[in-house]
Known about the structure:
The chain has an eight-stranded mixed sheet with strand order 1-8-7-6-3-2-9-21. The protein has a five-stranded parallel sheet with strand order 11-18-12-13-14. The protein is elongated and about 75 Å long. The model is unreliable at 1-47 (pLDDT under 50). It has helices at 2-23, 34-45, 69-77, 100-103, 117-120, 123-126, 188-191, 198-214, 222-228, 238-258, 282-294, 335-339, 386-405, and strands at residues 50-51, 60-65, 83-89, 93-95, 114-116, 131-141, 146-151, 164-168, 171-174, 179-180, 193-194, 230-234, 267-272, 297-301, 304-307, 311-314, 319-321, 324-327, 331-332, 350-352, 364-366, 371-373, 430-435, 438-442. It is α/β, with parallel strands linked by helices. It comes from Panicum miliaceum (Proso millet). Its EC number is 1.6.5.9. Alternative NADH-ubiquinone oxidoreductase which catalyzes the oxidation of mitochondrial NADH does not translocate protons across the inner mitochondrial membrane. It catalyses: a quinone + NADH + H(+) = a quinol + NAD(+); a ubiquinone + NADH + H(+) = a ubiquinol + NAD(+). Pfam families: Pyr_redox_2.
Amino acid sequence: MAGSSLLRSLTRHARGASAYHHHHQTWAPFSTAAAAAAGARDEARRGFPGLGPTVKGEKARVVVLGTGWAGSRLLKDLDTSGYDVVCVAPRNHMVFTPLLASTCVGTLEFRSIAEPVARIQPAVSKSPGSYFLLARCTGVNPDAHTIDCETVTDGEKDTLEPRKFKVAYDKLVFACGAEALTFGIRGVTEHAIFLREVHHAQEIRRRLLLNLMLSEVPGLSEEEKRRLLHCVVVGGGPTGVEFSGELSDFIMRDVKQRYSHVKDYIRVTLIEANEILSSFDVRLRQYATDQLIKSGVRLVRGIVKDVQPNKLILDNGEEVPYGLLVWSTGVGASPFVKSLPFPKSPCGRIGVDEWLRVPSVRDVYAIGDCSGFLESTGKDVLPALAQVAERQGKYLASLLNRTMKAGGGHANSEAEADPGPPFVYKHLGSMATVGRYKALVDLRQSKVG
């Protein structure tokens, strides 16, 4: 079973981490500057563990930050006969995000859309020099070719402090994605659920079923029943539309049969500031609107101004009570990406050139939602889509493999290898489901690339 595979994967990672812990050595990052060397000695005295620089005769080390579409495709295609791979990420699996909405209502099980990193790239659990590290990157020193990391301990009550360590790299790839946009609206982070990870879908399913059961408690007022069973989705992009469609199917197929006492109270409202599926052709948008309304979804055009524990307030003053609030209004650069000492693209992502390199430093690349073309390239910033990230991961793996075979795999030696043709993106189309076994496909060519 996939769930057992996940457990075995976690066990292997734990063993690998244990072996790593027993064999680590204290080391000082290399630097030509005397000040940097003095700082490194100070760090060594403080006893930071870490993976030291590779030496002559060893494989070059590629450090990948993230296990999303970009990072996972890169990991899959990297040639581990010439590279050691170290993946640093706060989750040990890749999520097939287009099907995430289906897991919220039981159409699919969670294990069906999660693939362990150790299955994507077996080297991280089998090769002596390759690791998966359940951690997050907190800083980077491009001159020393090192990154600072700390272990992820979210939800672990017995863990006092995260463990801090360093990892030296020959090639560093930022594939750490983006984060959900809240536009600074008060209460969103505290009261809404973002549909981006498996644990988000699990929380949505838990909250939905809990509200259904609570609404059957005797003595509950009709107003409270309607609030508990009001599911509000904010954001009319593909994720918001697909979740609304899945939810309306769930209501028609399951709720009306199994929760007959409250079947007339449950409803779905989709709130969008402009038009739903704004990137699609106007005829497809109209078709999606008609299908959602036919499925019982209420469409509201408005801007959310405030989110409170049991209700949200729109810009026109209307109050919308809710029992479940799902927030899906797009993504933007994370605070970590904003803090990095690199030039940024116009939308705040890590700026890259046509070969997905960070041009201000050596041996550093960025792919996926955390990256964007610099203005100097003359290219538009690509949309935050899975197909963009996946294609960038494939391209960069090919570039790095070619670099390694040309003898440029180790740090500060990539100048010896020809990077080859630049990255070119060709849009293959967009698709969104709208429930009731219906979907839209827009095959128009993208205007960016």
